[in-house]
Design a protein that fits this description.
3 helices; globular; about 25% strand; single chain; three-stranded parallel beta sheet; alpha/beta; 3 strands; about 80 residues
Length: about 80
């Protein structure tokens, strides 16, 4: 079973990492999905945030780091998450 943890992660925090770590125990895969919201001016680019998350979650089993635009429900359908 997989779950999606979506947010801006601008930047990722210890609290975010705690949630991700806990989710790896409950789910086979955890997709950390960074929202690319063109209406906002984030401190870090999507590419930077993805890299920060990849580094911070290195070694956590089942963690997948991805980005998306638009509605979360559409992204959930795209990755076949329920």
């Amino acid at each position: 079973m997989k779950c999606v943890y979506a947010g801006s992660f601008d930047p990722i925090t210890v609290g975010h990492l705690d949630i991700i770590r806990r989710a790896t125990v409950a789910f086979d895969s955890v997709i950390v999905a960074v929202l690319n919201n063109k209406a906002k001016r984030p401190a870090f680019s999507v590419e930077q945030r993805l890299e920060f998350i990849r580094r911070a979650t290195h070694g956590m089993p089942g963690v997948i780091v991805d980005a998306f635009d638009g509605l979360l429900v559409d992204y959930l359908r795209q990755v076949d998450a329920h």
